[in-house]
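Weekly sync notes, structure subgroup
Attendees: PM, AL, DS (notes)

Item 1: joint prediction request from the bench team. They want all two components modeled as one assembly rather than separately. Inputs as received:
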Amino acid sequence: MNKLAFAVIALALGASGAAQADAVLVLNSEEASYSILSRSSRIELARHPVGREPHHVIVTPDGKEMLIGSTATNELLGLDIKTGERKRIVKDIIDPYHLGFSPDGKWFVTAAYRLDHVDIFHADGYRLAGRIFIDGLPSHMAFDTESKTVFVTLQQSGRLAAFDLQTQTLKWNVAVGNAPAGIIMLPDNKRLLVALTGEDGIVVVDPKDGGVKGTLQTGKGAHNFWPKGDGRHYFLSNRVEGTVSLVDTTDMKVVGNVRVPGGPDCMDITPDGKELWVTQRFLRRVAVIDIEQLKVVASIPVGKSPHGVFMMKSGAVTPAGGPVRAVSTAGGTK
Amino acid sequence: MRDLIDLWVFTQTWIFETFVGPVIFHFGLMAWYEPAFNAVEFVMLGVVQIAVIAIGMRFFERRWPLERAGKDDRLILVDQIYTVLNKLGVVPLAIFIITYPLVTAIELSVRSWGFAPPRLERVLPWLGDNALASFLLYFVLYDFAAYWLHRAQHAFSWWWALHSLHHSQRRMTVWTDDRNHVVDDLLVTLALVVFAQLVGVQPGEYVVILMVGRLVESWSHANVDMSFGWLGNRLLVGPRFHRLHHALASAEERHIQDHNFAPVFPIWDILFGTAIYDEQNRPTGVDDPVVDADNGRGWVVQQVTVFWRFARALVPKLRRATAL
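Output from the run, pasted for the record:
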């Protein structure tokens, strides 16, 4: 009976086009597919094939497309952000594991996790401006608000590197801790937060020179960030601990924790700001957290090793100074 | 079905997060976090396979045996050891450690050249909407590669020196499939992993293909007097079909082992002219005293003596190559 009900809901939503307005996209990294879920019904509506090893998804600067990085086929798949319709494939983007647009929309950057290089493209036409080879598994990135610098964590070497976007050259490369993964630039443009997946917390880094200015204990396997939306609080997934922490970046303290088993990874917030959706890599599920109660209220089955998660139509243009919508992350702990 | 998947992944996650993950984290080996999680699944699949063999397939062997129990039954013990070591990941782990750098180097080189083998779904888009058809097609392709690898194991003298260990068993049973030299396992694994990457088999599919394929192969070695019927015997490799491949050569049938190579689908033997079908019972083994001496030896002694057999077959070739 339940299956029948789900099928009817799925058909009704699909037929009306409401499926997309209400949809959530999840990348099943070890299944070469992406799932479309219904946000309100909390069921999987459809599963579609996509290249190989899709990990992360990002919104184009014009806010019209989602770009999925298919790492092992060296390409991006562009989907219409409202309908989910396949729009195009951008070829010859080598190993696009993590990806992001600079806040001004002029630069497009990819971190080739397996192939050890960072590629900087002119966003207009995805023309390669420069490729910088760098050891240590480049995994996640963040930009400064002026769109001059991209910061990339190097997960294996435990370092953080900064690259000048205009000249595509290395500015600095410093040790920050064991297995750095997720990274964000805070709105003040003066502090970078870096999650240390090989440790139990995050470090605060000076974007000028990479100097570590502080630490905060959150949980084992601190991995990735997602903003709560108030410019002050950020969610942080702790993959080994199996928790998601809520971090107050003004007072630099943890103000809440919620248990999310199964290697929590990438996150996104519903447009109404009430729910945080988190991929549970090992459990092949996506957890739904009630933000006010800080409590898991649902867990939805998807494909194998779900990684990136994205609220369709919630994207819009990346706000200057805000986090790059390089939804998700992963790492050696891919 | 979803309940079964949930039970499986919850168990896997619990084992990993309770026992394995904390160790990986403690020793700062987070680059191995995901592979270690997949390794837990491999061991779990091994337990399931052993249970299917020991409970399910052995039931048929006891109920409808082709060869009656006899004094050679003690020869089966070493095959059981092979099965446990293989299915529970001891041998595969050693092989993984050796092959991983090589496979990774090949993969990364190919990718850095910008070459990305397309998945079949790119060529046949309808496959994307049919998980079962997609799985079957990849399975068939995988079996095709395994067929030719098996022929190579018999065609090259140095490879036969290794593979003859598998054939030396005079008491063939469900346990015999895993009776292989580790170097033989290593070569086959390396070739199949590279092939799987080239045709775009996904990790999730690869695990299922491996599990289903190995179970069929265990069954095809069973000491069971059963048939799938005329059509069934041409669709799936069964004990009668594969036993002919293990048959002891005689003066009248000197090359009988050069038949029925297919691991899962007999179609390859039919297409390439290596299929034979008959109902005659024959003893199994190898008509070579040196190889036959493997019987009665334990796991370690077999591994050592067969390695030397392999080295002796290989070195003269190298010497001739050097002379050129």
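Discussion: The mean pLDDT of chain B is 90.
Action: AL to compare against the crosslinking data before next sync.
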